[in-house]
Amino acid sequence: MIIDCHCHAGKGDKITAPWNTVGDLGPYLRRARAAGIDRTIVFPVFHSNYAVANRELAAIVQRYRPRLIGFAFVHTGRDAGRIFEMVKQAVSWGFRGIKVHGFEAMPTREVCEVARAFHLPLLVDVGGQGEVMEMCAPQYRDVNFIVPHLGSFAGDWKAHQKVVDLIVRHPNVYTDTSSVRHYDYIVQAVKRGGPRKVLFGSDGPWLHPGVELHKIKLLGLPAAAEAMILGGNILRLLKSAGTKKGAAWAGAESSSATHLGTNHDQDGSVPELAEYPM
What we know:
Layout: E1 3-11, E2 22-23, H1 25-35, E3 39-44, H2 50-64, E4 68-70, E5 72-73, H3 83-92, E6 98-101, H4 109-118, E7 122-125, H5 131-139, E8 145-147, H6 157-169, E9 173-176, H7 183-193, E10 198-199, H8 209-217, H9 223-238, H10 246-250, H11 255-264
Parallel strand pairs: 1-3, 3-4, 5-6, 6-7, 7-8, 8-9, 9-10
Antiparallel strand pairs: 1-2
Helix pairs in contact: 3-4, 6-7, 9-11
């Protein structure tokens, strides 16, 4: 199963740029289907009220169920004091993770503790400031953090390098490959962090999911390692998300992912990885 772990959906209310205007899933879903992508994690575009945006996203996820998996978006400053209730509502809609964006506000103890309480992965766009994870990850070892774009949508190579180092040193920090242009940093992430720490993402609907998927295919990895990146890893992180019933959500689809994970959980490595081109 191939899962795109990074896509945006719904309407924003600022209408000054694509990412705060609309995430139109029509073209994205056609392209993802043609590329062989089975499931997609979605979160709202930028919005001035994420309670409203998350509710809209819930309707979109319901419309395309089981094709889409929702993550709740929160603003850790503006939503301070109500994040628990926002996430509780999102979990009732079947959402399986939380997103925060450093462009707006960095993670706080409140959001990390809510992620812990609901057993949810926390996707943190650090906006090039990977050092923030040096503070969060050791404080919340039981929370899995996903740093998208290898730390920088803007393509900051220093941020990419920082996130590669983070996934090597912190057992609860992962990264996704969405929109990464400097390909050798994807190679570094897989070689140094291991395929267990890297997730496939496209940054749809604005980037073509088939093009982003091809980046992973071009690594020429062993089948087991490729399967981890393309879906096994995110299934493992979602397995218990939301409640103890979360394990049942993945169902039979997660059995292969769990099997893959147990083969390589000790160091995230695949013995023959060095023999492949990348």
